[in-house]
């Protein structure tokens, strides 16, 4: 068995995204003597990137259909990124004779299928993991790409045909895999579709005082932490407005670990009357920040799983999470769940920060849930079983 994992991530995406959950699986496979490679956008050569940008400019310059309510330049960028990864995956898979190609995006799989036609002497077993909650077309739309109804229907049909042709389809929660089937009108659930959680993350843990000393944080202030790339789906403006409603005896400091343009968020914090600017940071040691924080908050509009939420549970950090996507299935009673609106989120945060006993109870429940979570060995066993089953089908 020789496996190629393919994602559309950049190297910076891997700090907070999919790479954090995949890297331990790759390493465990290699420890078992299985040949596994990990392919992402950083592996694209200059010519491939140049071709992608030229083709994107060409498509964006063409007159698009009227009244579709679709922003085609952004859509072309999203699709070309993925097709280009599918092209590179097909080339490397045929060259190095991978037996299994695992596409962590259905549109990468679409590109892979198309470009494999140019290698008629090679046949690969391939499958897909869907990392959005529900169908990926919907996830793209929720992530800020404007899609009209007609284009949405075409893309959903495209996605459904791809998943039905795959040798396996995986989502990280049962709610997620059922939502994909619902979104794409695929019933009953195919036997080769699976829900497979991310393995329990390995996170550095510190005493709160030590963590704050390392970060240079004020011992008496209240620190509220959120983690994730700066994107519409993370709803950071909602978090900021909810923080502005808090009534606390001590001053608070909002900290966001996530890459992206944060100027608009900083401006919103100033307009909302924050006493301190938001502290934005990029960190490899996420556990250091979690252990130093008084409260971890996820305000996301959608999450297929929410790895950062599970990391908060692993460190025993009190957490408030919006009850979206697969989050309730993952955290259960290990976090205080809130509806994804300002009133509910502000109320949940206020309750947690005003009630130390509640925070301690939630944190202990979260730690107990994290301690019972399957580790990388068990999750790799499941991956291996799925791959071997696909080989025999």
> Strand order within the widest sheet?
2-1-3-4-5-6
**Mean pLDDT across every amino acid position:** 92
DSSP helix fraction: 40-55%
From the N-terminal CA to the C-terminal CA, the straight-line distance is 15 Å
Classified by CATH, the class of the largest domain is Alpha Beta
Q: Which spans of ≥5 residues are poorly predicted at pLDDT below 50?
A: none
| Beta fraction | 5-15%
The CATH superfamily of the largest domain is identified as Glycogen Phosphorylase B
Rounded to an integer in angstroms, the radius of gyration calculated over CA atoms is 22 Å
Helix/strand-derived class? alpha/beta
User: What is the number of helices?
Assistant: 17
Instruction: State the domain count.
Output: 2
CATH architecture of the largest domain: 3-Layer(aba) Sandwich
Organism: Nitrosomonas supralitoralis
Pfam families: Glycos_transf_1
InterPro entries: Glyco_trans_1
GO molecular function: glycosyltransferase activity
Q: How would you describe this protein?
A:
- This protein is α/β, with parallel strands linked by helices and 393 residues long.
- The protein has 2 domains: 2-199 and 375-392, Rossmann fold, CATH 3.40.50.2000; 208-371, 3-Layer(aba) Sandwich (Rossmann fold), CATH 3.40.50.2000.
- The protein has 17 helices and 12 strands.
- It has helices at residues 13-16, 18-31, 46-61, 72-96, 106-116, 136-142, 149-165, 174-183, 208-215, 236-244, 263-271, 286-292, 307-314, 327-331, 342-354, 356-371, 376-392, and strands at residues 2-6, 35-39, 100-103, 125-129, 169-171, 193-195, 222-227, 252-257, 279-281, 295-298, 319-322, 336-338.
- Strands 2-1-3-4-5-6 form a 6-stranded parallel sheet, with helices on both faces. The protein has a 6-stranded parallel sheet with strand order 9-8-7-10-11-12, with helices on both faces.
- Helix 13 (307-314) crosses helix 16.
- The mean pLDDT is 92.
- GO terms for molecular function: glycosyltransferase activity.
- This is Glycosyl transferase family 1 domain-containing protein.
- Residues 208-366 form the Glycosyl transferase family domain.
């Amino acid at each position: 068995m020789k496996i190629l994992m393919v994602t559309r991530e950049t190297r910076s995406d891997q700090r907070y995204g999919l790479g954090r959950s995949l890297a331990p699986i790759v390493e465990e496979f290699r420890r078992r003597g299985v040949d596994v490679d990990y392919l992402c956008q950083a592996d694209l050569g200059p010519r491939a990137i140049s071709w992608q940008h030229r083709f994107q400019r060409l498509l964006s310059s063409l007159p698009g259909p009227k009244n579709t309510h679709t922003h085609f330049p952004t859509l072309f960028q999203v699709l070309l990124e993925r097709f280009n990864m599918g092209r590179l995956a097909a080339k490397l898979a045929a060259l190095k004779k991978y037996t299994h190609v695992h596409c962590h995006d259905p549109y990468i799989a679409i590109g892979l299928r198309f470009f494999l036609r140019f290698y008629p002497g090679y046949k690969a077993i391939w499958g897909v993991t869907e990392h959005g909650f529900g169908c990926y077309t919907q996830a793209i739309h929720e992530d800020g790409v404007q899609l009209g109804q007609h284009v949405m229907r075409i893309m959903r049909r495209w996605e459904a045909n791809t998943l039905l042709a795959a040798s396996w389809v995986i989502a990280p929660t049962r709610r997620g895999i059922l939502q994909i089937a619902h979104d794409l009108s695929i019933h009953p659930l195919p036997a080769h579709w699976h829900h497979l959680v991310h393995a329990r993350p390995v996170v550095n843990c510190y005493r709160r005082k030590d963590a704050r000393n390392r970060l240079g944080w004020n011992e008496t202030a209240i620190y509220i932490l959120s983690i994730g790339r700066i994107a519409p789906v993370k709803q950071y403006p909602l978090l900021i407005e909810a923080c502005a409603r808090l009534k606390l005896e001590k001053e608070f400091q909002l900290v966001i670990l996530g890459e992206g343009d944060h100027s608009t968020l900083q401006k919103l914090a100033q307009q909302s009357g924050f006493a301190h600017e938001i502290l934005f940071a990029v960190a490899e040691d996420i556990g250091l920040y979690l252990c130093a924080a008084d409260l971890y908050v996820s305000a996301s509009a959608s999450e297929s799983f929410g790895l950062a939420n599970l990391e908060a549970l692993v460190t025993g950090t009190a957490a408030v999470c919006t009850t979206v996507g697969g989050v309730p299935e993952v955290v259960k009673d290990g976090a205080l769940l809130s509806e994804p609106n300002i009133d509910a989120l502000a109320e949940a945060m206020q309750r947690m920060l005003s009630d130390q006993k509640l925070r301690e109870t939630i944190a202990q429940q979260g730690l107990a849930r994290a301690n019972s979570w399957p580790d990388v060995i068990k999750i790799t066993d499941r991956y291996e079983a799925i791959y071997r089953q696909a080989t025999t089908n």
